[in-house]
Design brief:
heterodimer, A: 288 residues, mainly alpha, Cytochrome Bc1 Complex, Chain D, domain 2, 3-stranded mixed sheet, two-stranded antiparallel ribbon, 7% strand, globular, B: 101 residues, 4 helices, elongated
């Protein structure tokens, strides 16, 4: 039979070992890249911060945050300002290239109803491929010059493709590939890192302050922010793509924007789209 | 006492260079330092628009012969570039404080 002091000593050792094992697990968990856990935490943060906003309504940006604005926007949606881009995009999408092929030949399902799957991680290239990038690659593969990534034709084409996916839940996959996890993590870091002379990160506005005003604008929540793209912005007096949105945000913080479709922008689009999985595509959108 | 005036003049002359207007060479040195810091910020993918604007202002002032103004703008650009470098380096870890967990 074990003597009492020895039993106490052995018991203490077990408790200490268990505590160490628990702490070690937590450290490993903290360092591990876990997109599913990140997405869950991201969505819960917004659902708890705005308990009165319907989950699917976050994709409507500032209109989900302010009832007056929402009413004005709903009236505007009867004659939406992006309609001309939508019509132009539909026509461009159907018009064959000089070689007779079309955009439909470059995409799964003929390019219809697939917006919710972009961006995706291309395991051959080892990088994130956005819809805008895929469209320009399609053009170049068919002997056509690439479009500007920020507006006009690219915005029209992506507007039409988004429209064919309206209501479909965002469905971004992260393959079991360390490079894909790294791209996700890089996107997350870009989203949270401060930059520019204003010392703002994307999160400063769209996590810490959604629903609040910055000058005359009401800030959109980060959750679902890309589901509405491309958008017509009154501030731009025209349409803008996801690339234009990132570039404008950078400039507003007094950071020199990166080149459109830079790895950082592709990765942050991957991160923001993944954490919005399950929320419906609402693009093309309109914003003040 | 008859040496006091020449001595005073010599003293004044010896101090004169400290009060002279800036030269093109002074500007070039200040601009080169600012440009080096700016290049480092660009390498860190963290350039600020205000650094670029101050560098352009320095060049414009120098082109117009205003080397005092040009040096002031170059020093401003260098200070901004150094701040952006600090930001880029500190954010390598600091971003985690903002992360939703």
């Amino acid at each position: 039979m074990m003597k009492r002091p020895a039993a106490i000593l052995l018991g203490s050792a077990f408790v200490a070992l268990a505590a160490f094992a628990f702490a070690a697990t937590r450290v490993v968990a903290a360092d591990k890249i876990d997109p599913a856990a990140d997405a869950k935490a991201f969505q819960n943060f917004f659902f708890q911060k705005f308990p009165n906003v319907k989950r699917e309504d976050f994709v409507n940006g500032p209109y989900s945050m302010n009832e007056d604005m929402k009413r004005q926007w709903q009236e505007k949606e009867e004659f939406p300002p992006y309609e001309f881009a939508l019509d132009a995009g539909k026509e461009m999408f159907a018009t064959p290239f000089k070689n007779g092929r079309t955009y439909a030949d470059c995409f799964p399902n003929g390019g219809i109803g697939i917006r919710q799957n972009y961006p995706y991680f291309d395991e051959k290239e080892g990088k994130v491929v956005t819809l805008e990038l895929a469209l320009n690659r399609c053009r170049e593969a068919n002997g056509e010059a690439p479009y500007s990534y920020v507006k006009d034709e690219m915005a029209s084409l992506t507007a039409y493709m988004a429209f064919t996916s309206r209501g479909k839940p965002m469905d971004i996959r992260i393959p079991d590939d360390p490079r894909a996890l790294e791209a996700f993590e890089n996107g997350k870091r870009y989203f949270y890192a401060r930059r520019g002379q204003m010392n703002f990160s994307c999160a400063s506005c769209h996590v810490q302050s959604p629903g609040e005003r910055i000058r005359a604008e009401i800030l959109a929540p980060a959750l679902g922010i890309l589901n509405a793209l491309p958008i017509y912005r009154s501030e731009w007096s025209g349409m803008g793509t996801t690339s234009r949105r990132f570039i404008t945000c950078n400039s507003q913080t007094r950071a020199v924007p990166l080149e459109p479709q830079a790895d950082e922008y592709r990765d942050v689009e991957y991160f923001l789209s993944y954490v919005a999985n399950g929320l419906p595509i609402s693009g093309p959108g309109a914003r003040p | 006492m008859k040496w006091s005036l020449p001595l005073a003049m010599l003293l004044l002359l010896s101090l004169a260079p400290a009060a002279r207007a800036a030269t093109e060479a002074d500007f070039k040195a200040a601009y080169a330092a600012a440009e080096a810091a700016s290049r480092e910020a660009t390498g860190l993918r963290n350039q600020w628009t205000t650094t670029v604007a101050s560098l352009a202002a320095a060049k414009k002032a120098a082109d117009g012969g205003d080397f005092d103004g040009a040096i002031a703008a170059a020093k401003e650009a260098q200070a901004l570039a150094k701040a952006s470098i600090f930001q880029a380096n500190s954010e390598k870890e600091a971003w985690k404080a903002m992360e939703i967990r």
